[in-house]
Amino acid sequence: MSQKRRSSSEISETFADHLEQHGVSRRGFLKFCSSMAAALALPAGSADVMAKALSAAKRPTVIWLSFQECTGCTESITRSHTPTIENLIFDFISLDYHHTLQVAAGHQAEEARDVAMKNAYGKYLLIVDGSIPTKDGGVYSTIAGRTNLNMLEEVAAGAAALISVGTCAAYGGLPMANPNPTGAVAVTDIVKDKPVMNIPGCPPIGLVMTSAIAHFLTFGRLPAMDDLGRPKAFYGDSIHDRCYRRTFYDQGLFAKAFDDEGARKGWCLYELGCKGPTTHNACATMKWNEGTSFPIESGHPCLGCSEPNFWDAGSFYEALSVPQGRVGETVLKAAAVGVGVGVAAAALNRSKKSAAVEGRETMTVEDLKKES
Q1: How far is it, in rounded angstroms, from Cα 200 to Cα 118?
Q2: Is 33 annotated as a binding residue?
Q3: What is the architecture of the domain spanning 8-235?
Q4: 302 annotated as a binding-site residue
Q5: Which CATH fold would you assign to the domain 239-321?
C-alpha cells in the first residue's frame, strides 16, 4: 500500500503495465475477468471486453474509511478469493488508506490520505465501513481528533463515487438500533450529491464487494442498483428463491427444532425463523469461504442481515407470518400451482437471456455499459 506521494509515472501507469511488471500472466488476468463477468451476470463475450478495458485503464485510488463498525467487513473482504485481497490491493487498485490494513499510523496515515485525495481529486473511489454518529456533533467516534461526520464530508467531496460496505454503512446497522445512543445514521443520510452503492450484510460476502469494485474499474461507474441502492446482480433475488432447501419448503417439509429428524435431513428452516423469503442477497449462490457454505447450509436460519432495520425487527427464531402459497396441510394445490408458475418463469427468463446474447459474439465496452 502506498504511503508516500506517488510519482506522475506511477499515477499514469495502466493495469497492463502494472501486471506485466509484477509477473501476472495473461491467462491469470483473463481468468479474473471471466469470474468477474460471470459474477456480475454480464452477457457472453464480456470477459474479453472487460480484459481490454481494464488493460488500458489506470489504477484508481481507493480510500477506505472505517467508522462505527466491528471490522467484520474487512475480515470478509480479506477472504475474497476471486480476486484475493492481495490481487485487489497490489494489482488492480491503489488502496491508499485503510486503518486496519495499512502499515502507517498516526500522522503518516493521515498524510497518506491527504496525498491520495489531492492526487486523485474527483476520481477516487471512497469505501465507507460503519455508521456515522451525529448526536452531540458526532463526538462518539473520532479519528485523529476528527469526528467521523467531519471526515466523511471532507473525503466524499472529492470522490467520484462511494460504496457503503456492510449493513452499518448502508442502513445504520447495529449502532442505529433502538435506542440509538450515538445518533448513528447511514452514509446516504449524509452524502446526497454523489453516487452511492450499498453492499449490505453483516458482513457482506467478500466476492460481492470485490466484484462491485471490478465493475467500477471496468466502466468507471457503479453497476445497476435496486431501489435500496444495492447491485442487482447480487441482490436481485431473495435467498429463498435460490436456496437448495426450497424444494422441502414446496413439499411442506419443515424442521421443527434444530436437533429433530427434519433438521438432520436438511428440511426447510422456515419454521425456525428463517428470513430467506424476505431477504435479498447472494448467500445461497456465492456462499462463503471460497464457496464452501452459508448459514442455511450449516443448519442455521437466515437472520435477514442485508435488509434495513434487521436488528430492530428481531424475531430471529420466530417464523414469518404464513406466506401466500404455503404448502403443507392446507394449500398443497396452491403451492403446486406456484411451483409450476416458478418453473415457467425460470424457463421464460432463460429464453430471454438466450435471446439477449444471441448474435453478441462481437462486443464493445459501450455494449457492455448498456448491459450493465
Answers
A1: 29
A2: no
A3: 3-Layer(aba) Sandwich (3.40)
A4: yes
A5: Cytochrome-c3 Hydrogenase; Chain A, domain 2 (4.10.480)
- State yes or no: 268 annotated in a binding site: yes
For residue 211, give the nearest of 36, 48, 366 by alpha carbon. Answer: 36
* Segment holding 129, helix H or strand E: strand 124-129
DSSP state, residue 88: I
Buried residues in 288-304 as b, exposed as e (16+ CB within 10 A): beeeeebbbbeebbbbb
Distance CA 92, CA 363 (A): 23
Q: Are 132 and 67 in contact (CB under 8 A)?
A: yes
Cα 219 to its chain centre, rounded Å, is 17
| Backbone region of residue 124 per phi and psi (left: phi > 0; alpha: psi in -120 to 50; beta: other values) | beta
Residue 126 three-state SS: strand
Q: Determine whether the annotation assigns residue 274 to a binding site.
A: yes
pLDDT tens string 4-60: 444 433 445 677 777 777 677 777 778 778 877 777 777 777 888 878 877 777 778
Place of cell 486503518: 99
* Residue at 58: amino acid letter: K
Is residue 240 a known part of a binding site?
Answer: yes
Give residue for cell 447450509.
Answer: 297
